[in-house]
Amino acid sequence: MKKLQQLGLILFFTGLSIFIGSLFLGKVSLKTDQFNDWANSKGLKSQLFISEVQKTILDKEFSSTFAFSSALRTALNAANTTHKEKSEWDRVIWDKPHSLSFELIKKAATGPVKEAKVLFWFLTFGLAILGSLLFIIPGVVTLGSPGIKNNGIYHNSATNRGWIGWMVFVFLVSFYILLYFFPDYIVNWTYLVDPISESLSGHPASQWFLYGFLYCTVMTVMAVRMYIKYRHNKYQVLRTTSVLFFQIVFAFLIPEILVRFEKPWVDFKNAFPLDYDFFFSWNLDSLIASGGFGLFVLVWGILLTVVIVPVMVYFFGKRWYCSWVCGCGGLAETLGDPYRQLSDKSLKAWKLERWVVHGVLVFSLVMTALSLYTYFSGAPEVLGIQTQTIQDIYGFLIGSIFAGVIGTGFYPIFGNRVWCRFGCPLAAYLGIIQRFKSRFRITTNGGQCISCGNCSTYCEQGIDVRAYAQKGENIVRSSCVGCGVCSAVCPRGVLKLENGPEKGRINPTEILLGNDVDLMELLNDK
Amino acid sequence: MKHIVIIGNGIAGITAARHIRKKSSDLITVISGESEEFFSRTALMYVYMGHMKFEHTQPYESWFWEKNNISLKKAWVSKVQTENKTLLFSDGDELQYDQLVIATGSIPNKFGWPGENLKGVLGLYHKQDLEALETLAPNNTVCKRAVIVGGGLIGIELAEMFHSRNIPVTFLVREDSFWNGVLPEQESQLINTEIKEKHIDLRLGSSLKEITSDDNGQVKEIIIQETGERIACSVVGLTAGVRPNIDFLKESNIATNRGVLVNRFLETNIKDVFAIGDCAEQQEAIDQRRPIEAVWYTGRMMGETLAQTLTGTKTAYKPGHWFNSAKFFDIEYQTYGWVWAQPKEDEARFYWEHSSGKKCVHFNYNKDSLQFIGVNTLGIRLRHEYFDRALREKQTIIDVLSNLKAANFDPEFYAKHEAEVIEKFNRENEIKVQLKKKSWYRKYTEL
Fold first, then answer.
1. Considering the entire predicted model, what is its pTM?
2. N or C, which terminus of chain A has less Cβ within 10 Å?
């Protein structure tokens, strides 16, 4: 078994190395007619840029995507600078340089990856998946009989912020930076999934398709790990299956298939304000342009946020969304599970959390109000604030940096729910309902708590569960996503997630746990 | 403003301190030589097993003590002078108190075995034991085999700890089945099986004769009393129970027996001196409880109770119905009320075991009145609140069984066995029990 696991590691790292190495393969050579087609379809008005590209780029061979990108951006900057100096605003190319570069490289790259997509898929994704499974599946035997197996987590460099943890951190952060800000550097990766993308949507893969596919793959592989680790716990098994289902079907397959039918890309489970651009003009325009379907999406989206989400939270707590449906939660619960113990439980962190997460909620609501105002009034600004600027700031700070780079990249350092805990505006909204009007709570089993601290340690949301359990107090917290791990790791069976009557949900703390009743009365009387 | 000094920062002492602080602004000093701050002793095993770091066993952050104006003093008390209300410390320091709370807990039993003080012999009780274990048994190359002497809860925890680092363990249990002085035969057998399944070399009916050493005074092997067999090992865990940690009181005027003798108000024979937790011994037993109860929950209850007395509401210690819980490797154990190892004359028993051999429930009730007396459960979680009420209201076994659904505390979606349990009961008895449904309608309509 150990041998199999070692082989698995070797295969995984081989796959990973080829994956990373593939970025440096191939050449880029943009042909004149490729460029002309592209320029026409974009309606490019900058002759300056076109002639610059003709002079320095067309029909030349660049040794790598990086070299091509650099040359292209130089041409673009030069053209834009001149246009801006001359105030020729309609000629300025406003596209993000790296996105522009991505489009051209996607057409113009040559090399082994593009020519042997399927082979390279097997050498990268294939080997990594196979290797991971070979590493994970023998856990059925090596972890021992079913039951909580957290042995050695704090002795392991990967799960205790050791050097492996930091390496994973660097890798993940770099990945997100490339994905969000330098898509043209990872064109080769998109070739790997072109065949899959074409079979689903009929289009070649963008970096977002790559991300979606990778997301589903990682979640599936790590869900296998969850199934094995928590195979004694039906709640965990069902919950993992649920998030996996919603990710693959609702966040990945349905939207891609919609595109094939020339409908807008829609993730039906993605509720506003997590789906922060739902009320942006471009989205509203696109929905309205797609007739009955668009109208349905619009009504569904509003209904989801205004009715379904609060009603479901009332009955089941926010866990129905955060732990059973949400894609961010899904990644956190699968890829992030090995890191759950790293979340900060200090009072300071809790105070910070409340300011930050509610701040994001307010920010997103204000931005949406501005967007809607702009949409209906036609004016680009409100009280001197450009709606576009606000949207850009939000998209950059929250949508990219917080949700991606920090939200996932920091798993190995800050624990797996950094985004959900500090950044997600929807979590804040659900949390407010859960805290004040819900039937959900974590019940503690009378006086059985021995304050061992397993529950708090393994709470991914940084809740000091023990502080409540040792007082015999129900846990009613905004941030609790109902993952159920506190209940699973408790060696005394003290915690249970329950949806029950509202009566008695918030119970007093001043009880003498297990002491004679008249003493309890004495305290309650005072 | 008086100065309340608490010796011992375990659950009893700290609970007392916290509850005193809730009700008064007296000066509070908590003394411990073992650790700066309160930690959960029962969690030490998880630190060794790598589930947690030592910090995680500390329920309160460091700022908590200063914020609540509770002074912590790290020192060992060597002598208590009750005549002038002074504590003497091993480093020569002194401290005056107005009221003294002794909450020093317990220490592992040693029975004068030859070699019991060798290097490599330890209990699992103090933070220092954990630190010693980390040096003596970091892995299975340094420690090729460990021997545990004595059954019980700490013994099996220690076995689980070694097991987590793949260190082979020999487990000497004097009784002919694990913990059968406390557990009825069926539960005890079930745990025996669990221990053996984890590849622990469980030796029932075996006791320690001698621990021998190598030239460096380090443990080399142990000899078994009954068979004379020698087992080579480098670490020996002594877990044959604990006794009150009161040796430092020997020369004081405080009356002691095995523990510090207290009355129902947790007062000792000396005014303004109290004792709580593992080290306190009741002069008259309460209910069917033993005079010394080395249990987490009773320590906490005594701390809560004494805090009432010290802050002006004189309160007797009246623990409610007995409960306890533990975990034997992967099997959780809970008990409510009394289920003695051997049934008493007027008691009837009902036992159900799941086909997996990993779950069971064992009910104890009065043969004639059918009054419910207690329940043991392995692998199934039961609701404390429910059984506390059942005992208080003197419910019958019929009431309890028919409400089993409401009494279940297992996580959602877990397999439920209530119907099977009741079917077996009905088969074995003339009385027929009907299982009451836990209606989802009630759950969602009752506001």
1. 0.93
2. C
